Amino acid sequence: MSRQPMRRTIRGGRPYFFADPAIDKVLNMVVVLASEVWTLRERLMAMEAIQVTRGGLKAGEIDRFEFKPEDEANLSAQRKEYIDSLFRVLAEQVDEARRSKPAPSAAPAKAQKPKAPKSKASKSKPNKATARKKK
Asked: Helix %, strand %, coil % for the chain, to 5?
């Protein structure tokens, strides 16, 4: 019996847990980051263990390592790209809000209250109290 691959999409769209969609977006970012951090930690621990057992690395050597200036510059560029991708969802939301915002010179339109629909009772036979007054 073979296993079927797991679906990569959620039926019915993205689930929402909070009334404010912005909170859901932040929660999504945190969960994605947490999973990414754990994956990196696990891989790093595996690489360190392999290197230590093979003799290519001494225990604690990674903690004492310092990057060369050109490597620091490369890491800095990668860090900026990573942070930009992390906050892309929020940046897109800000851009969308700015595009949909009315021009500052335009006067805001007054919101009109919707008229309540007349009930069917008012169209039906008059009640006993109003029928007596009309006589």
From this structure: 60, 0, 40
